[in-house]
Amino acid sequence: MEYFLSDKEKIVAETAREFAEKYIRPVRAEYDETGEFPWEILKKMGQADLCGIYIPEEYGGLGLGVFGLTLAVEEMSKVCGGITLAMAATALGTFPLLLYGNKEQKEKYLPKIASGNMICAFGLTEANAGSDAGSIATRADKDGDYYILNGTKTWITNGGVADLYTVIAVTDKSKGARGTTAFLVEKGTEGFSFGRKESKMGIRASSTTELVFENCRVHKSQILSREGMGFIVAMNTLCNSRPGVAAQALGIAAGALDEALKFSLERKQFGSPISSFQAIQHMLADMAMEVEAARAILYQTARTIDSKKQKNFSKESAMAKAFCSDVAMRTTINAVQIFGGSGYMKDYPAEKMMRDAKITQIYEGTNQICRNEIALQLIKDAKGKK
Ligand SMILES: Cc1cc2nc3c(=O)[nH]c(=O)nc-3n(C[C@H](O)[C@H](O)[C@H](O)COP(=O)(O)OP(=O)(O)OC[C@H]3O[C@@H](n4cnc5c(N)ncnc54)[C@H](O)[C@@H]3O)c2cc1C
Fold it and tell me: How far is the CA of 130 from the centre of ligand 1 (A)?
């Protein structure tokens, strides 16, 4: 389908596609196996101008917004959702700064992020606060011009490898979610360390660790927006970043469809390519329909966000994330099926794609939480019309 990309958008998609073929495809299985962080590839992504696509031009980026980011994440995730996540999770960690940072904070960090010289992360989740993010317990107690952070964040993507972390902590327990604040914390700050690195089912090239704060002193100038805005910073960040997860999911799904189609033309049984069997054709047709529908909902959501004409897009963002990730799961399961026994083997890419797809239904708000958000907005809108 034709999405009428601008010349700049076409260049971004093409660059990301070529980059993935040249630098990611040859090594994706190796990174999946070892679980190592793709430092070299990320450095090259920076050199190829792929790290600052969504960052405004005045801060050294390409100024192509959420839609530009979507195109690049989709193209690279067609080849490897795990390696691509190193860049996509930096976008998640950068959105709080883009949305709520002051001029000084933006000037200090954004040019480095845009050039690929600074990796970011977003620290919200804790052991007892996953979907129920409002119940975080990491504290930030005021001490003059500083705040003293204590607590542990769990399962933070880019943990340990990132240079800059947005951390949501409680500054006034009596106010619940409205008593939380967002802090920019640099790696190397005294009292800030990393817990264990997780060994994961999929997206194994990405680093997932705990963030540990033990009497970590952070200056008040590192607050994003103002005290008490932490939950709002976090929720609006997710509204802007969920299309990134959707793009990762769409890329994985589209990549799995490509691989399955190619395999179906080559593999012969009963004297014919398996692509000649109607059962296989219908699976391929369903996969293609769903991938295209996922692309349409995602592109339109990203364009809506970038247009800045719609103030609240939490429903659209949650729809894109839940829909694309459900499609990724169904498509990759079908891809494994089309590959038959080969689909179960690590010699072929289908099983990795299925493992990589699963996380997109879980992080940045599980698909149950996304459906809660969609229903909440539907009901709100319906009541408003009454
Ligand atoms: C690999 C990985 C990377 C991650 N990266 C980050 C990161 O960079 N930063 C960060 O802050 N977090 C990160 N997370 C955390 C992730 O966002 C959470 O895992 C996710 O939000 C779900 O929380 P939970 O795992 O505690 O599940 P729970 O909240 O305990 O949920 C368990 C189950 O109950 C369901 N459930 C819970 N509440 C409801 C409800 N009200 N209605 C319906 N169903 C419900 C959920 O959908 C789920 O199926 C990451 C997680 C993983 C696994």
Answer: 5
74, 126, 259, 364: the active-site residue: 364
Phi then psi for residue 246, to 5 deg, are: -60, -40
| Interval 246-281: pLDDT, tens | 999 999 999 999 999 999 999 999 999 999 999 999
Residue 68 shares a structural domain with residue 143: no
The preferred substitution site among 366, 371, 374 for testing ligand 1, maximizing ligand atoms within 8 Å of CB, is: 366
Domain-located, residue 2: no
For the whole model, what pTM was predicted?
Answer: 0.98
Contacts 24+ apart (CB under 8 A), 57-60: 59/106, 59/107, 59/110, 59/111, 59/114, 60/110, 60/111, 60/114, 60/115
Alpha-carbon distance of 31 to 82, in angstroms, equals: 9
Rounded CA-CA distance 172/139 in Å is 9
**Residue 1 falls within a domain, yes or no?**
no
Domain of 16 in residue numbering reads as 7-119
| Ligand 1 probe mutation, 131, 154, 194, 359, most atoms within 8 A of CB | 131
Answer yes or no: do 96 and 197 share one domain: no
Query: Could you give the CA distance from residue 334 to residue 248 in angstroms, rounded to a whole number?
Result: 18
pLDDT at 299 over 90: yes
207 and 347 fall within a common domain = no
pLDDT tier at 114, thresholds 50, 70, 90: very high
The answer to whether position 386 is within a domain reads no
Residues 183 and 296 in one domain: no
Average pLDDT over residues 353-371: 98
The CA 359 to ligand 1 mean position distance, Å, reads: 10
Same domain, 136 and 214: yes
Domain for residue 102, yes or no?
A: yes
- Give per-residue pLDDT as tens, 153-211: 999 999 999 999 999 999 999 999 999 999 999 999 999 999 999 999 999 999 999 99
Total domain count, the chain: 3
206 lines ligand 1 (CB under 6 A): no
Q: Ligand 1: does its nearest atom lie under 6 Å from the Cβ of 130?
A: yes
Do both 106 and 134 map to the same domain?
Answer: no
Pair of tokens at residue 34: 């070892």
Q: Is 95 in the pocket of ligand 1 (CB under 6 A)?
A: no
364 noted as active-site residue: yes
Instruction: Please give the distance, rounded to the nearest whole angstrom, from the Cα atom of residue 292 to the centre of ligand 1.
Output: 27
State residue 316's pLDDT score. Answer: 98
